[in-house]
Amino acid sequence: MFNHFLCQQKKGDITMFRKVLSSSKRQNITLGILYMKPVLWMPVFCILLGILVIAQAKEPKLILSVEEINELIPQIEAAEERPFLNLKVESERWTETKTDLSDPCEQWQRTPIYVSCTAWFGGGPEGKARIDVHKQVLRWRDGAAPYGESSYSVGFDGQQGRVVRYTRGHGGKTFSLKEGELLPDAPELLRGSYLDSCTGAYFTFCFFFNADEYRTFSKLFRASKTPAALEVNAFECALEEFQGIQCIKFGSGEQLWGHETWWLDPSRGLALLGYEKVSTRNGRDRLSSRIEVNELKEVADGVWWPTQVTSVMAPFEPGEPYRRFVYRASKVVANDPNFDESIFTIPFPDGYLIDDKVTGRKYTVGEEPNAPEN
Fold first, then answer.
1. Domain containing 41: what range?
2. Is 374:365 a contact under the CB 8 Å cutoff?
3. Residue 80: pLDDT above 90?
């Protein structure tokens, strides 16, 4: 009866999005209501729901002053510097869908979309890196076999980038590609948010903006205290509780296009705990994405890496479902004294056709005596 009643509820987009993603505190209340007589629990539920909505809209928060922001900036800059000497992550990410986010009776459904990978990082977002994608399953077309499967590696050794494509296929059948590329810089895929979300890097303080030289947390915090920004309330900086932890809440403020908000944990090296992006269209706010870092591991002194994260994306088009990306790291090792830097130079196996973007040559490894790999 109670579940049936909940199934009939329809809430506003942005309020319900946040409630569904952070509902643990309200579950204890609803369990108590279950044992009430039907005549009693209906009005009590409505009253409690109203109180919760009001309380959520009026969460206490302490606005930080310009002086307090100035004190924070050196800590932020220190956290943005090379966070570790080396780091290895073994992880996976899969996708789930849900049609109606406001319906508590509808469960998230796992899809075939999946990635498993091993990543190595040699420092910050612009440093050496390598990601071996052991299995990637993505939707590529409609029909009897709508999902394609592939495996590949991308890397940057500090001088050149490399891409090696091993296999590709669909419908349960795969074939060898035996292709590679040599690039004058890091592959775009290596620096993008897609693979970073598969390795966990995207959910960290240092890697959130990738290698964007124009956007870092220190630059955003510095910009927030300029007279021009203060005059129009371009940013919000406050202390606020997130997941039961007192965080630094930093937001871009209300803009014509919407706004972004980050929650950083000062007790764990300014680790990212949450992110929210709200889009504004025709004067109406719409929560387009929300990230919650559910578990962090201290992999080195002062270095925290996410090991469990959920990220929900609103539909791009009407009729499409909500998507939830679930990230899990099974192993994270930082500052290994026996780490071998040569891991960042991905080898081109014999028989692979290499497209050398540096010299403009194309060659097959093992067949041309003067090829770089021979």
1. 2-53
2. yes
3. no
